[in-house]
Amino acid sequence: MPFQNIKGRENILKKILITLLVLTLTGAVAFTLYFRLRPAETSENPIIENVDEDIEIKDDSVVEENTSENYCLTCGQETAPENANLRPLAVIIENHPAARPQSGLEDACIVYEVVAEGGITRFLAIYTHKNCNNIGPVRSVRKYFAEIAKGYDAMLAHCGGSPTGYLAIKELHLADLDEFANSGAYRRVSSRKMPHNLYTSTKRLRERAEKKNFASNVSYESFKFKNDAPLEKRPEETYAIIDFSTPKFKVKYEYNRENNSYSRFMGGMQHKDSNSGKQLEAKNILVLITSIRVVDKIGRVDISTLGSGPAYAFLDGTVITGRWTRESLSNTIKFYDQSEKEIALNRGQTWIEIISPDKKVDFPEFQG
Ligand SMILES: [Zn+2]
């Protein structure tokens, strides 16, 4: 039937033409609407801003879990896989003015700073991924230091201790590297007077630990880590001051915008590391407020790091007001913001400052 075929072809051609016409008209309307409704690209209203916003969101919100074997479990810094989850070494370092400048604080992943006796502060420095060949002066342990070390399942390096400190080591089954029983891992230097002259190294401590058959790798809860805030989001300058006791123990951190870190001052002077001569720099400062009470005639204190309490987190030039929490001595201390979200820290060294509620933390108003 040739006639019907011609008629059929005409119908198909008509349909195609109508479809093309509808598509062309729709396209033209959409094109016109787009250019009519689109905001003008002026200097006040640069459309390119949208692109910047996308990039900023990407840079600032990346929170990475510690799943990668290339990042130190304790501080989030990039390292060789064999160093990432080494068993942490927790070393007690003193802060008596005669002990300054200390050696090796710059190589710690985390440093805890708390008051010991008579307003004198003392440090618990945790070494995981970095080696340090000169750490000290090493001093004696207190109960609360042993309890903090337990959260990391760390090996504890110290020189003697208070009775409750020793009891805590025993009861918590800590891997103990006391100088009294492991003197080969330590040395006394002649350039300083006793008791401010005892030093050690990560190599000596780890060798000693191996002889004692301590596990060389352990697991523990760590912080969440993120990338640094982009430069344009960082403030020009800011600071944080922590008043532990007397002016000699007053700590100040000054913010460096370029490095996104905080330079540490102690007793009104730059706090330098004796090994490098460089001023100590922290990426994050966490302030933990808890009960600290005197428990004996010597003035020794008991510090509670269990439960929960107020906290401040200083990072990226800003301060987050929140709370700290710790469920048991086998857990590490965690920090949360006011919406109960765990605070993600910048990769690098963190200082954790433990103070009682009557002590002052100062920082500029605009930060909060
Ligand atoms: Zn580390």
What does this structure look like?
22% of the residues lie in helices and 28% in strands. It is of the alpha+beta class. The chain has two domains: 81-211, YerB-like (YerB-like fold, 3-Layer(bba) Sandwich), CATH 3.50.90.10; 224-367, YerB-like fold (3-Layer(bba) Sandwich), CATH 3.50.90. The strands form five sheets. A ten-stranded mixed sheet has the order 6-5-2-4-3-22-15-18-19-20, with helices on both faces. Helix 4 (143-151) packs parallel to helix 5. Residues 27-61 have low confidence and may be disordered.
Give the topology:
Layout (H helix, E strand, L loop, with lengths): L1 H36 L11 H12 L2 E2 L16 H4 L4 E6 L15 E6 L5 E7 L15 H9 L3 E3 L5 H9 L3 E2 L9 E3 L9 E3 L1 H10 L12 E3 L12 E5 L6 E7 L4 E6 L2 E2 L10 E2 L1 E6 L2 E3 L6 E3 L3 E9 L2 E9 L7 E4 L6 E3 L3 E6 L4 E3 L6
Parallel strand pairs: 2-5, 3-22, 5-6, 9-21, 15-22
Antiparallel strand pairs: 1-9, 2-4, 3-4, 7-8, 10-11, 10-23, 11-12, 12-13, 12-14, 15-18, 16-17, 18-19, 19-20
Helix pairs in contact: 4-5
The structure holds zinc ion.
Q: Under CATH, the topology of the largest domain is which?
A: YerB-like fold
Sheet of most strands: 10 strands, mixed
Poorly predicted segments: 27-61
The assembly state of the depicted protein chains is single chain
Shape: globular
User: What gap, in angstroms, lies between the N and C termini?
Assistant: 87 Å
Strand order, largest beta sheet: 6-5-2-4-3-22-15-18-19-20
Percentage of helical residues? 10-25%
Share of β-strand residues: 25-35%
Mean pLDDT across all amino acids = 87
Number of domains: 2
Number of helical stretches of at least 4 residues? 6
SSE topology string: HHEHEEEHEHEEEHEEEEEEEEEEEEEEE
CATH superfamily of the largest domain: YerB-like
**Radius of gyration, taken over Cα atoms and rounded to an integer in Å:** 29 Å
What structural category do the secondary elements indicate?
Answer: alpha+beta
Which ligands does the model contain, each kind named once? zinc ion
Number of strands: 23
Question: Per CATH, which architecture of the largest domain?
Answer: 3-Layer(bba) Sandwich
**Mind telling me the CATH class of the largest domain?**
Alpha Beta
